[in-house]
Amino acid sequence: MVNKNSIPQLNNEVKIKIGLIGDAQVGKTSLMVKYVQNVFDEEYTQTLGVHYLERKINLGSTDVIFSIMDLGGQREFINMLPLVSNRAVAIIFLFDLTRPETLTSIREWYRQARGFNETAIPLLVGTKYDLLVNLDVAYQEEVSKTSMRYAQVMGAPLIFCSTASSINVQKIFKVVIAKAFNLTLRIPEIKDIGDPLLIYKTLGNQPQRQSADYSEHARCRQPEQIRNMTSEH
Ligand SMILES: Nc1nc2c(ncn2[C@@H]2O[C@H](COP(=O)(O)OP(=O)(O)O)[C@@H](O)[C@H]2O)c(=O)[nH]1
Ligand SMILES: [Mg+2]
Questions:
Q1: Which terminus of the chain faces fewer neighbouring Cβ atoms within 10 Å, N or C?
Q2: What is the pLDDT of residues 82-111, one digit of tens each?
């Protein structure tokens, strides 16, 4: 048996702060808890009462620690915004696919968050895809096209996810890693209206200002390492 300790290790550790921003009830805390603890349970999430979680991921000789921060409840959101945005490497803007007004709000969230952090990698994420599929086809088309336009303006990848049905949850964070470390991601895009969109090549492909800080940690890493990280279940 190979003794792990005999293998030379670089033991790099990089902490990446990720901010989750969006209207109340869009599913920010649920997404964070699902990603870190693989649980989707409203009661559990509320009991937990957390708005900050960490998950460590191994990327070759580098350990990447995602520190994920969620806006608190409805009331304190204005005060919380700098705390969530400042020094975030990525900001995930979330809206509820079944409530178009939460997409409209993204405009203001984006403007304010950008005021605190100009360089974070933005992502636009539509939540509760499991509920969207039951809605009118014309509505699905409209929300898909509108969110594509928003993502275009934001320079952000666009991902539809369902925390309840485990759709695209892991992939959101793979896109974050790929963008932060300048790695090639080989996950196929999903672009057909009605499907859980995953668009990260044609949307959000502009080079980020100051992203070089993070890409240096990941030099020589192979795309396989991202592909093999954690698969969706
Ligand atoms: N059907 C469905 N419900 C969800 C999903 N994600 C979150 N929810 C529900 O949406 C509500 C708000 O979620 P929460 O994470 O507290 O939202 P937050 O206020 O943005 O943190 C809760 O009742 C969740 O159970 C999802 O993917 N599908
Ligand atoms: Mg919450």
A1: N
A2: 989 999 999 999 999 999 999 999 999 999
Q: What percentage of the chain has pLDDT greater than the value 90?
A: 68
Ligand 1 mean position, distance from CA 94 (Å): 11
The ligand minimizing its distance to the Cα of 33 is 1
pLDDT digits (tens, 9 = 90+) for 135-161: 999 999 999 999 999 999 999 999 999
Q: What distances in angstroms separate CA 86 from CA 71, 114, 152, 174, one per listed residue?
A: 13, 10, 23, 22
Instruction: Write the single-letter amino acid at 146.
Output: T
> Which atom from ligand 1 is nearest to the alpha carbon of 163?
27
C-alpha 51 – ligand 1 centre gap (Å): 14
Contact 29, 51 (CB under 8 A): yes
Rounded to an integer, what distance in angstroms lies between the CA atom of residue 80 and that of residue 103? 20
Ligand 2 geometric centre to CA of 74 (Å): 9
Choose the CATH number for 12-207 among 3.40.1370.10, 3.30.450.20, 3.40.50.300, 3.30.310.40: 3.40.50.300
Phi, psi of 130 (to 5 degrees): -60, -30
Whole-model pTM: value is: 0.87
- pLDDT above 60: residue 210: no
